[in-house]
Amino acid sequence: MPGVKTPLTPLQYLTYAAIVSAWTSGNYLGNTFCSSFINQDPNRAADFSQLSAALYRQLAWDGLNTNISSYDAGMISAADRNGGNQAQIGVCKATPVCGVFLTYRNQYRKVHVNGKAAATSQLYGPGGGPATDVYLNTDPRVFGVLKESTIVHETLHSISGLYDAWPESEQISDDLNLENLMGLPVPGKQCQGIPCPCKKGTVCISVAIWNHFCSVN
Questions:
Q1: What is the pLDDT of residue 84?
Q2: How many Cα neighbours within 13 Å face the side chain of 144?
Q3: pLDDT greater at residue 126 or residue 55
Q4: Residue 205 is part of which domain span?
Q5: What is the pTM of this model?
Q6: How many domains are contained in the chain?
Q7: Which of 6, 121, 18, 15 minimizes the C-alpha distance to 62?
Q8: Which of 40, 64, 213, 216 is 20 to 30 A from residue 151's alpha carbon, by CA?
């Protein structure tokens, strides 16, 4: 049976759109603290310069009720998809989008998920176009506290095509991913005297965006 890609309800969409509008009107990229952070790295600056255009074309979906595979949703890097990384392709084909937010059973086993993730995004635009889709956790306990930094974080995925960190199947922790693009320490290494934005997990990217005054929350 084909999977289902579920739109947000009108009220959910208005909530999401209000967050995007608030971030856009806040002109955070123009403040001294955020712009200094962005311009520390040319790759970071290049991605942040595309944020406004990427948010304009972004399409938000109900991730909790979308059960197409992560592969069909484009939640795989172009390098993995086009390069034939069978391990990562297999993981994405076996994982439904809702599996980011809910415990699910694939053809191999039951996969336990804590349900705290707020969103996930498309890395690869099917058909070769830009990645546009963001999938939101519409559980009211999570959706009700959706933050600007989360939306910015997910949009950076769509711009860069990068994972938060390399999947376990790749084992290339020193290569470019969104965590080190944001200046976060390589997993398992010390912060080299610099205070870490948070202990662990992909939320650290969102926290770094907020800590550098690139969003209000």
A1: 81
A2: 3
A3: 55
A4: 10-211
A5: 0.88
A6: 1
A7: 6
A8: 40
